[in-house]
From TrEMBL:
The keyword Ion transport does not apply. It comes from Pendulispora albinea. It comes from the Bacteria. Gene3D superfamilies: 1.10.8.60, 2.60.200.20, Homeodomain-like (1.10.10.60), P-loop containing nucleotide triphosphate hydrolases (3.40.50.300). This is Sigma 54-interacting transcriptional regulator. Residues 160-387 form the Sigma-54 factor interaction domain. Keywords: ATP-binding, Nucleotide-binding. InterPro entries: AAA+_ATPase (IPR003593), AAA_lid_NorR (IPR058031), FHA_dom (IPR000253), Homeodomain-like_sf (IPR009057), P-loop_NTPase (IPR027417), Sigma_54_int (IPR002078), Sigma_54_int_dom_ATP-bd_1 (IPR025662), SMAD_FHA_dom_sf (IPR008984). PANTHER family: TRANSCRIPTIONAL REGULATORY PROTEIN.
């Protein structure tokens, strides 16, 4: 990034220390609706007194060298921003956003505000730019104070771009795990990108064999073992020829066992034997065949709980879970919505991605929609939007699926947001008071614990962050 006219330093040449603590407030520049491919940015607020937002000739984020110490300047080439648009100030241990007399105002959780005390997860709109505030995010002291998402490359590697420090660390660790033969268990809801991770592990592994993906839930129950381990001709009626089976086709490659929680009990035992002995015995064969497998398993089911209640073998679980990675649902990593949208647009429309833009209302809908189908649903949503846009370059709200549009019906959003904000602020206040003790919050509010847990999920509040 370039140096600003007023002497502010750029991202590249100014990265003050994030501070000593391992948790702290962060601001994410999630998405510029008029430039959805512009790289999103994470800003650590620790040690800062104030952030000043305004219009600049190009984007530049950095510490102010003159004037107030510990002041950060966020300049965007956004025509809807005023030259000094808003200030975010640390007052009495809270971050307060204040409109600095802007023409187009500041919107927090869908509501125009002259002043707002920010709470964890707040979505802030300044001009056409969307930010998310995180009050208490885990990070490492060595993390850069200002971090710009690396430009997504093509292929599976580009899909490992994230602004979330803990996820970034998990993804970085994958590179070294990939080179080993340790088995990997990937947990996450459907569509969160588990197969993307598995493919990435294979790509980074230098294993020369194939990547073979098996959906354990889709194997016909009575044919599981034949499909997996192969069979000899005549082993059963219909076995008219020798078949090597899926496991052997992954020899010297990577075996991706998707939906491993759906594997029937007898096949769990047989698979365990293969992993222990590193050999496969095809159905009807007298002698086993050696195999060199690297196993990556994935599940959307709570495998550990299945072990506890006896529906999944503990010894197989231990074999599979050499290294575990959990992919959060998209609604829990909204900070990455811009990163992921950029990757998807580049992949779906490589030639015209640079010229695409999102109408602010469309961007707002993407940010508020809960994405039950996770990244896959976002991908489908953008795919259909691009078809509807046709030769055009601007994705309008009307180009998005009805359910996504409904996240925004403006009056609804405004009403819901102000009610929702009150609910959320109350929760945050009580969590602070009770140091994250959900039972105590439930008692004070006269509600069931489960209800509080539902609200925490809805508002994406992590009670852990209050338990310091
Ligand atoms: N970070 C990302 N950026 C862009 N696209 C992504 C990302 N993560 C996942 N995708 C895309 O989302 C879709 C779903 O991903 P994937 O199949 O890996 O999910 P999954 O968790 O394995 O789903 P399931 O549990 O249903 O098998 C794929 O088309 C994938 O390319």
């Amino acid at each position: 990034m370039s140096r600003l006219d007023d002497g502010t330093l750029s991202i590249a040449d100014d990265a003050p220390d994030a501070g000593a603590g391992s948790r702290g407030a962060h601001l994410f520049l999630v998405l510029e609706s008029s430039k959805p491919l512009a790289p999103p940015v994470r800003i650590a607020l620790e040690g800062m007194a104030q952030v000043v937002f305004g219009r600049g000739s190009s984007r530049a984020i950095g510490r102010q060298q003159i004037g107030t110490p510990n002041q950060l300047s966020v300049r965007m080439a956004d025509p809807w921003l005023s030259s000094t648009h808003a200030r975010l100030t640390y007052v009495l241990r809270r971050w307060v956003l204040e409109d600095a007399g802007s023409k187009n105002g500041c919107i927090v959780q869908g509501v125009r505000k002259a002043q707002a005390q920010l709470v964890d997860g707040d979505i802030i709109e300044l001009g056409y730019t969307f930010f998310i505030f995180r009050e208490d995010l885990a990070h490492e002291p060595g993390d850069p104070a200002i971090f710009e998402a690396p430009r997504a490359e093509g292929g599976a590697a580009g899909k490992l771009s994230t602004l979330i420090p803990s996820l970034e660390r998990s993804f970085t660790r994958l590179a070294s795990v990939a080179k080993s033969t340790v088995s990997v268990l990937i947990e996450g809801e459907t569509g969160t990108g588990k197969e993307v991770i598995a493919r990435n592990l294979h790509e980074q592994s230098d294993r020369r064999g194939d990547f073979v993906a098996i959906n354990c839930g889709a194997l016909p129950r009575d044919l599981v073992e034949g499909e997996l381990f192969g069979y000899r001709r005549g082993a059963f009626s219909g076995a008219t020829e020798d078949r090597p089976g899926l496991l052997r086709s992954a020899d010297r490659g990577t075996l991706f066992l998707d939906e491993i929680g759906d594997l029937p009990a007898p096949s769990q035992a047989a698979l365990l034997r293969v992993l222990q002995e590193r050999e496969v015995r095809p159905v009807g064969a007298t002698r086993p065949v050696p195999v060199d497998l690297r196993v990556v398993a994935a599940t959307h089911r709570p495998l550990e709980r299945m072990v506890e209640n006896g529906t999944f073998r503990a010894d197989l679980f231990a074999r599979l879970a050499g290294y575990r990675i959990e992919l959060p649902p998209l609604a829990m990593r909204r900070e990455d919505l811009g990163v992921i949208t950029g990757t998807i647009l580049r992949e779906l429309a490589p030639e015209r991605a640079q010229s695409l833009e999102l109408a602010p209302r469309a961007a707002r809908a993407l940010l508020y929609y809960p994405w039950p189908g996770n990244v896959r649903e976002l991908e489908k949503c953008l795919e259909s939007a691009l078809i509807l846009v046709g030769e055009g370059t601007r994705i309008e709200l009307e180009h998005l699926p009805g359910a996504v549009q409904a996240a925004l019906e403006s009056t609804n959003l405004l009403r819901r947001s102000s009610e929702g904000n009150a609910e959320r602020e109350k929760l945050v206040t009580l969590l602070r008071e009770h140091k994250g003790n959900i039972a105590a919050v439930a008692r004070t509010m006269g509600k069931a614990r489960m209800q509080i847990q539902r609200w925490l999920k809805r508002h994406q509040i992590d009670p852990e962050s209050f338990r310091k």
